């Protein structure tokens, strides 16, 4: 499933090395696009609030935040499990 | 035991702190990292093996050994092992880039560089992989334990690299006796206990992180070293390891609070400390809300003398904005622009003297003479910090800011000159000006280039560590000049806000 615009906007805000006119590749290392620990922690908070989900403790490691694709995969699995309102 | 160690006459070499702890409480845990624990006896043994390995590798007294690595048990053993062998330890953090390492190697001229990058990407011919080195150190029948080389108290133990107002980093020469003196003076204020568990997410190249090693050994406490892997769940990690003391810089405090909000629960933390970069009032209030049992102890210092002042636990409630009183046995003076002592409440440069003032900058006599000035009458060395502040009538210090273009970001001291210099090394960048952070915005890099802002930042990220890479870059066709022909930084600064 491709990600939605909200996800793309949240993620881009944490990636200072990515130009607005450049595409965000699903398999690019986010570290190479300028994400740091602080930005990852803040991204986790905003993603959880925006999608009203909670990342389980065992997903809070660097692999989850390695690429746009890995993060979206974890996130989409979470909200497909949440009861729909 | 703690009191005996603190007052023990035999501490004249930094390794004595470890050897005393190993003799007194060898079976107790000394250091924990992502991969396991070592007792004080095991840490001392590994440091002896590493010292012997250095000896076999041709490192002799006075040689510099650079270690660029994530904080780990091996890092701590290399620190003590290097000092045991009489060599000078030069710690660098894992975020150090090849460009920065090149600057340090050119300056320190080390005998050996050890790095945890695999494969070692360094241009330095002397670079060795940490993993390979430790395979040799650990090999059964490998190096026999080494005791320790004789070192005079005035011999150099550490070179600690820090940013100055110049483009290239410079090292503070830290002799054994002064490192020990500063450690004991800080310990007398912080009072770590034998049952403390100190959670350290600071790089061990940063003196605030590095001295946690010595403070823990002096108290017989346990040090838990965290890597970046823990950043998303700091509160849970603190709970799991039973942390009682956590040294904080603002970025770390913010991450801890994020994690505590997601994951509220009991905590054994009794003390937060802070130096390196001031914790904002809002962060202090949130720490108190989420960790009601923990006290907060604010401090202030500079690598050139380790620590300048320490406030009592929760002293900020009574004296908001203060960073405490001078270490016992040291003196803080506030000097006005005319070089005369300021009255209480009057702002001036913070000038420090005492046995904690380090031995100047490595191979930089002019810079040393400018900062470490001898009193013409007494010959006493006074460290001119370049920082501004005032003392109140009770001798409490209030820090106002830096007088030059240096600033702190993510707890790292840096300067506009240093970042501009690296930005100008990017092919395609003609000119670069760095606007330091203000109360209202983060730092902004302004460049004249045909590259895009993202391209500039991406390239800068390969030259400098993350704390020194801005999030914002503005591209200009040219920079306007001020009336005296210099780049008009005020104009750029207005553009950066709009």
Automatic annotation (TrEMBL), chain A:
Origin: domain of life: Bacteria
Keyword Phosphoprotein: yes
One Pfam family it belongs to: PP-binding
Statement: the UniProt record of this protein carries the keyword RNA-binding: no
Gene3D superfamilies: ACP-like (1.10.1200.10)
InterPro entries registered for this protein in UniProt: ACP-like_sf, PP-bd_ACP, Ppantetheine_attach_site
Keywords in alphabetical order: Phosphopantetheine, Phosphoprotein
Domain Carrier: residue ranges: 1-79
Protein name stated in the entry: Phosphopantetheine-binding protein
Organism placement in taxonomy: Bacteria, Bacillati, Actinomycetota, Actinomycetes, Kitasatosporales
């Amino acid at each position: 499933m491709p990600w939605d615009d909200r996800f793309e906007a949240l993620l881009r805000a944490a990636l200072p090395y990515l130009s607005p006119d450049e595409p965000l590749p699903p398999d690019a290392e986010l570290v190479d696009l300028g994400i740091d620990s602080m930005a990852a922690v803040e991204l986790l908070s905003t993603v959880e609030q925006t999608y009203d989900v909670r990342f389980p403790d065992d997903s809070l490691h660097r692999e989850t935040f390695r690429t746009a694709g890995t993060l979206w995969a974890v996130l989409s699995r979470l909200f497909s499990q949440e009861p729909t309102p | 035991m703690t009191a005996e160690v603190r007052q023990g006459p035999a501490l004249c070499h930094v390794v004595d702190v470890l050897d005393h702890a190993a003799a007194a409480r060898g079976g107790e845990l000394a250091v924990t990292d992502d991969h396991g624990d070592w007792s004080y006896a095991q840490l001392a043994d590994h440091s002896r093996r590493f010292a012997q390995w250095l000896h076999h590798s041709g490192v002799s007294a006075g040689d510099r050994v650079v270690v660029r690595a994530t904080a780990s048990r091996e890092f701590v053993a290399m620190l003590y092992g290097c000092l045991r062998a009489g060599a000078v330890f030069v710690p660098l953090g894992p975020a150090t880039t090849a460009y920065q390492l090149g600057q340090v190697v050119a300056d320190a001229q080390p005998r050996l560089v050890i790095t945890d990058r695999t494969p070692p990407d360094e241009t330095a011919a002397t670079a060795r992989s940490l993993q390979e080195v430790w395979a040799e150190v650990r090999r059964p029948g490998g190096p026999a334990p080494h005791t320790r080389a004789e070192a005079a108290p005035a011999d150099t133990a550490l070179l600690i690299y820090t940013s100055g107002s110049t483009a290239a980093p410079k090292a503070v020469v830290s002799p054994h006796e002064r490192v020990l003196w500063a450690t004991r003076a800080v310990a007398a204020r912080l009072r770590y206990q034998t049952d403390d568990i100190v959670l350290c997410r600071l790089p061990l190249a940063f003196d605030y992180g590095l001295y946690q090693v010595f403070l823990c050994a002096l108290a017989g406490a346990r040090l838990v070293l965290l890597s970046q892997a823990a950043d998303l769940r700091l509160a849970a990690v603190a709970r799991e390891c039973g942390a009682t003391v956590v040294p904080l810089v603002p970025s770390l405090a913010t991450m801890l609070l994020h994690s505590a909000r997601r994951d509220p629960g009991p905590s054994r933390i009794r003390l937060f400390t802070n130096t390196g970069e001031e914790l904002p009032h809002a962060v202090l209030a949130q720490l108190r809300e989420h960790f009601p049992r923990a006290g907060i102890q604010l401090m202030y210092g500079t690598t050139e003398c380790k620590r300048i002042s320490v406030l009592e636990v929760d002293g900020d409630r009574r004296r908001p904005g203060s960073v405490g009183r001078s270490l016992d046995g040291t003196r803080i003076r506030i000097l006005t622009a005319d070089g005369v002592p300021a009255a209480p409440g009057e702002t001036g440069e913070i000038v420090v003297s005492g046995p904690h003032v380090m031995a100047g900058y490595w191979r930089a006599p002019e810079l040393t003479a400018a900062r470490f000035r001898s009193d013409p009458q007494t010959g006493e060395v006074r460290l001119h910090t370049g920082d501004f502040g005032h003392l109140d009538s009770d001798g409490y210090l209030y820090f106002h800011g830096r007088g030059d273009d240096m600033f702190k970001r993510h707890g790292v001291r840096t300067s506009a000159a240093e970042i501009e210099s690296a930005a100008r090394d990017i092919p395609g960048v003609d000119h670069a000006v760095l606007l330091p952070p203000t109360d209202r915005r983060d730092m902004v890099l302004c460049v004249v280039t045909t590259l895009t802002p993202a391209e500039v930042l991406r390239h800068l990220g390969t030259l400098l560590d993350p704390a020194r890479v801005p999030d914002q870059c503005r591209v200009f066709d040219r920079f306007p000049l001020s009336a005296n022909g210099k780049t008009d930084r005020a104009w750029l600064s207005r553009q950066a806000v709009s």
